[in-house]
Amino acid sequence: MAESKDFTITIAEDAHYTQYDSPATPEKGRRSLIPEDAIEKTSAFITEWTPFLLVASYYVFSTCLYMYCSDGLIAIFWFIYMTTNFYIAGATVLEAFMSITPCREARKVVTKADEKGWVFPTPDDKLLILDLLIVAYLPNEKDIIMDRAIYALEQIVYPRDKIRINILYNTPKPIEPLETELHNLTHRYPHARVIKVPGSTSKADNLNHFFTLNTGSDLIAIYDCDHYPHPNGPRWAVERFMADEEIDIVQGRCIVFNSNDSFLTSMIAVEFDKIYAVSHPGRATMWGFGLFCGSNGYWRTSLLRELKMDGSMLTEDIDSALRAVSRGAKTVHDLNVTSYELAPTTFPAFWKQRLRWAQGWAQASVKHLKLAFNKPQDQLHNKDSRKFTTRFGLLSLLLIREMSYYLVTQYTCLVLSFGIVKFPKSGSELFKLVYFQYPVSQWLFFISVICLLATLWITNQVKSEFISRWMIIVFSIQYPFYLVLSATIGLYGHARQVVRYSSWNPTARK
């Protein structure tokens, strides 16, 4: 009991109540019956729903504002939004065209290896020592961890004396017999290592614990637990390091293999092909920098041990990738280093995942935007780093991309205001309302559509075996709605960052 001159505060041990005794209280010992768990629940409720209210208010306020704007002001806004959307579409298609070269080079390498009977350039005894990490968060991934671990231990084609398959996991409570079965893998497979990370609550904690261990490896590969690495994926990655000593990170291509589970998974699968087979290699070629994307990525051990993972970041992988860029690290995207993963099968799971990504990107963008403006010495390769093209690419990625959420949603609110003020009476009026309010819109609209179709055509050329042409057509049709949804999620991520939302919601895997 803490006593003071004016009042006494007592903590009731039996029910977590706060009791106030005051001389001014008529009944001595009267309690203010406010359970601590009720306060915590109320606080969590407010934190959870405040971003929703902020985004809803943003949409309502913006739509109402446009309803009262003059025609001249509306014309200015319309031109700004159409022009900026045209820029985004143009940059996307340029990245897509730039991806054609790395795609062709990847095919040539495969053809050459096939002609030689899959004999790789580097002899087995000269290969670098590889630590391959499978990072699991239990119990969310308890149903798949054994399957993925055994697959990696048995199917990956790499000299056993040069690779160690490390299963890193954490769990808030013991899970038996699963944990015993995991640790028994070390008896069946000499190249297996199973590590339960004490006190860990995140992927970053698991990885940082491993980085404290002296394993003697040259390279570290990071995989999320839901991935199936291609048997030759590690070999392709290591060959890139062997061919170029300046390469610090090799990021592979992630492919969604459950595309037929639902409409949602089919659209995510097309999106992943567009991102990993087109946008990432195209951006690396166009702007001169690549990014580690969280899984199916290979690092030089010395660099990764030095950078570690920042557990305070929701997307610690993007943060580490941008910190590597700040050091002048050379990251390449290799389309032959493939891995297969699961997409969320339900919209709530998709929503939680993308909100975490959106908030994490917002965090990382604010923290690392300075990379677009400074030009330090390359600390890894002893040469000038971040040319103008690289810095402009970072500006586009970290600032313009985040601003695009507002541009897309403002355009949406503008169209909504048109629909309210002058509701269309026919399909042709609706089409004109949305796209052809002003003459300049025709040119910007048609050019943007051509850019989109060109991007999706290139995506079709490099689509995975789990994607059909019909899926790409459907993705193209619903793409405008997808952009609005993505922009809304981006705004939601910003709102969460404003209220300092910090819950980490891992995606359950089955």
Automatic annotation (TrEMBL):
Membrane topology per record: Multi-pass membrane protein
Keyword match Hydrolase: no
Membrane-crossing segments per the record: 74-98, 392-420, 440-458, 470-492
SUPFAM superfamilies named among the record's database cross-references: Nucleotide-diphospho-sugar transferases
A GO CC annotation given for this chain: membrane
Places the protein is found: Membrane
UniProt KW keywords: Glycosyltransferase, Membrane, Transferase, Transmembrane, Transmembrane helix
Entry's Gene Ontology molecular function annotations: glycosyltransferase activity
Pfam families noted in UniProt: Glyco_trans_2_3
Predominant localisation class: membrane
Domain Glycosyltransferase 2-like: 220-456
Protein name (Swiss-Prot/TrEMBL): Glycosyltransferase family 2 protein
